[in-house]
Amino acid sequence: MLHLLVGISNANTVLLQESNVNESLQKVVEELGRATDVDRCYIFTNRIDTDGLLKLYYTHEWCNKGIEIQLGNPDLSGLEYAIFPGLYDALINQQAYYGLVKESENELFKEVMESQDIKAFLFTPIFCEGQFWGWMGYDDCQIERKWLPEEVEALYVVAKNIGIRLSREKSEYRFLHSQERFNLSVLGSQQGIWEWDVLEDKWYFSKIYMSMAGYTADEFEQTFEFAASIIHPDDKSKVVKAFDDYIHKRISEFSVEFRQLHKEGHCVWVRGSAVGKWDDEGKLLYLAGSHLDITRLKTQQQELEQQRNEFDYLINNLAEVVFRLNTANEFTFLNDYWYNLSGYTQEESTNKTICSFIADDDVEFMKKQFSLLESKANHAINIDVKLKHKDGNYRWVNVIASKFKSSFSDASAFAGSIIDINDRKEAQEREKELTELKSNFVSMASHQFRTPLTVIYSNIELIESYASKLEPKSLERFNIYASRVKGEIDRMTELMNNILLFGRYNAQELTVNLKPVELSALIERVLETYFSSQPDGRKIIFNSKGIKKIVELDELLFIYILTNIISNAFKYSAGKPNPELEIVYKKNEIDILVKDYGIGVPPDEKSKLFSSFYRASNTSTIQGSGLGLVIAKQFTELHKGNIKIDSELDKGTLVTLTLPDTHE
Fold first, then answer.
1. Are residues 82 and 15 in the same domain?
2. Which residues contact 527 (CB under 8 A, 6 or more apart)?
3. CA-to-CA distance for 42 and 25, rounded, in angstroms?
4. Which of 535, 618, 541, 506 is nearest to 572 (CA)?
5. What is the DSSP letter of 579?
6. Domain's final residue, options 420, 436, 456
7. pLDDT of 608 higher than 80
8. What residue stretch is flagged as signal peptide (predicted)?
9. What are the b/e assignments for 394-414, b being 16+ CB within 10 Å?
10. What is the average per-residue pLDDT within 240-250?
11. Rounded Cα gap, residues 206 and 220, in angstroms
């Protein structure tokens, strides 16, 4: 028994001193094998296999001289407890299992043991952290040993010590792993760590903490005084107060942002936090904290703040209202110009609907517009309404709004602007009144002039019939005067007609009645009707290029355009070759070119040709109103076309009329 106890003592020493747990188990097997004088000492380890079943694995072994080694025998690993009835139940209940093989009632167990020449056995269970980890076995192959209870108990104590060592190994592993993870997380977070052992009054600062301020371990004093000395003077009182309040439990947590002085002279923004441990009497025992460099964050915050201030300045200095509405059409934001426009402060207006500031007769219209804005995607409104000023007056405003999604909510909202257009609206009303007045005046004046001109013309014709009885010489002189009067009457009549057309256009009273027209046929008809018998005997030379097309035209307006341009071609080219007219049919448009070889236009006056009542300086001796080209241009634009004039003094003029091909 003494020899056994010495072996057990040696085994326990190995368990305490050997650093490698696997090697310690092997040495324990060897010590106990020799101490018990058995033929074989070994360890079976429990493992959950890939199939989810608990199985036995032969992991450690010592054999006496002449005994065959079984370690590595595949038949002894991956075994199920089911083949050894009663073994698992005994061991799981923390009971040693021992006896003579020949007395075993389990034939399979007896067969396995006898195949290895085992006559007696002892199994002691090993538990680790309350879990059945495995068991230690002792085999006798030469004698039928009967184990004494005290021997079994002593060896079972060793099995318990093995379990304690295994539990310690696991605890140490978890602790080291946890510490390693903590160190890695601290290192990865780039936080500076500090600790204060209050009882020993010792301070510790990590390398990252020191490096934040630009110091090495040799340069940094591990004292509270040194750490406090590198706090920015303007922040020191704030930090010290927060620290003192926390350690005396006046505040529940310590978290403060402040500037730390870097060794190189600049400042580093840090966020400091700490947690403490107090005893039952409320005395502080230990304090641990961290510093996080937030310089970049602070810089970004300052830049964002600056940008926000600049944005606010721009928004609040706009000469228009900028607003945001919630889904109930209530103001949630208004810039400063709202007060200038409405007389209401932002506080008076926030959470009130936009419609409550609109004239009653515009409210329903505005509600419908915002309802459309809510129901249609990518929709925007642009409306003119009257705004109620706080003083009771009304001002015309232009409201522009669109829908947007807030980044802080899934709900839709509206944003837009309100522009003061009161002066513009009043100017438009005045202009409209003036236009109507001018139009009425022109119409009245034209009609008033037309009657006396008609009377004069008819009387001239009457006088001409009586004058036919005059002497030839007197009759010739009379006819000259009568012709002049009739010419001036014709000129005045043409002027009145042009003024009426011009007035109707400006008053937007002209309606365009587009119909499909065969262009070439229409032009030929115009030439035959109006220009087939010129006093000087000249004719227009007509040509057409391309495939003839049907064109959408207002025939009356187009005839006016064409007759005006062709009349000018004849009028300003007296004594010159025949004018020319050419139609060029293109893919998407049609060009009508009228060319003459007349007096042309001075280069510096070309830009004025489409100005009302303007006539070129070289046309003073030629009759005209100065409105024909203006009206022709207006009528061309009503057809969504354009007119261009190219001219060279004393060589002629080319007028190009371009119309879109809109007929399908």
1. yes
2. 540, 542, 566, 581
3. 10
4. 618
5. P
6. 420
7. no
8. none
9. ebbbbbebebeeeeeeeeebb
10. 92
11. 10
